[in-house]
């Protein structure tokens, strides 16, 4: 649908509980119209859902944050800020825009029209890697799957508190697409590989989104200390995204430091009910923030701790624990005299291919001669790897 038609269907922006400021794109002829076109498209296509979620009739003016643009093309994010009410979360979208004789034509992510537009955009506006990602994400989003292939947003083998069971992105809103977590070192990690996009950047906080090839996207809110990766940069499973906090860069509220973790499919939020994430299958309750997570017959409700068991492919994992050291050596063989091939920072997730006995090491938990070979090569002593067990968790090499 073209922007001119969208204007006829636009939702009027009224007095806002949260003041939204347009972030102007780079200067150039006709650029002043870009913000208007993106805002009107966002209100027309996502405004009704935002109004229902926020339970308001008047929405705040959407933010428009272009990250790349020239005279004819633009790419970035747009966000409808949430009102300052309990648990409300902002609505955000990735946009691509093309300027023709009629003005700026805007498409929002999660649609066939968006995929078509990004394929046509020059590579300095949308990279080849992004074009491939958005196409695969859209294609895969049309097939429902129970196991998301995603982990939970912290280190594997570590337990965090589930402070809020399945609930809406704006608290009581439907679908119940979100979960609240806190614990450990507070480092929020990407739930899967993809590309990262940030919006509503204010006061060291923002809304972080990772678009995954498998048809899902995940969002992370309330964090500070955000990753310095630029928009569209690749992220791997377990990469750092931010630190749990109480940031409210685009409205809402929070009662304490945590990450508001949400699941999207296509252009909208999708229920976590019945979905497996991090080895746990989540079930919603009769009310928002209730429900539980289930794994192998064990159920954990709101207020309980759950361990991130990873992406569900069965590969054993451990978390680097250097004790007083900020990093741990990876060696070419299970020997202290073997060359160091890499240094892993404390908190890194290691996927274990197999185990062997080698030189004894005085590790964090005492002396051990057990070594773990990574799935990408290299050996790390079990004395500096938390696996939840003193015994081998992978087959012998």
Q: Care to describe what's here?
A:
The structure is a single chain. The chain folds into 3 domains: 3-141, no CATH class; 159-307, Distorted Sandwich (Glucose Permease (Domain IIA)); 317-386, SH3 type barrels (Roll), CATH 2.30.30. It has 397 residues and is mainly β. The N and C termini lie far apart (57 Å). It is 13% helix and 37% strand. The protein is globular and about 70 Å long. The strands form 6 sheets. Strands 5, 6, 8, 9, 10, 11, 13, 14 and 19 form a 9-stranded antiparallel β-sheet that branches. Strands 25-24-23-20-26 form a 5-stranded antiparallel β-sheet, with no helix packed on it. A 4-stranded antiparallel β-sheet has the order 1-2-3-4, with helices on both faces. α3 packs antiparallel against α4. Pfam families: Peptidase_M23. Keywords: Metal-binding, Signal, Zinc. Residues 1-26 form the signal peptide. Zn(2+) binds at residues 167, 180, 260.
Task: Give a brief rundown of this model.
With 397 residues, this protein is mostly beta strands. The protein is 13% helix and 37% strand.
Count of domains: 3
- H/I helix tally: 4
CATH architecture of the largest domain: Distorted Sandwich
What is the CATH top level name of the largest domain? Mainly Beta
Work out the strand percent.
35-45%
Number of strands: 26
The helical percent reads 10-25%
Low-confidence stretches: 1-31
Mean pLDDT: 86
Biggest pleated sheet: 9 strands, antiparallel
The CATH superfamily label of the largest domain reads Glucose Permease (Domain IIA)
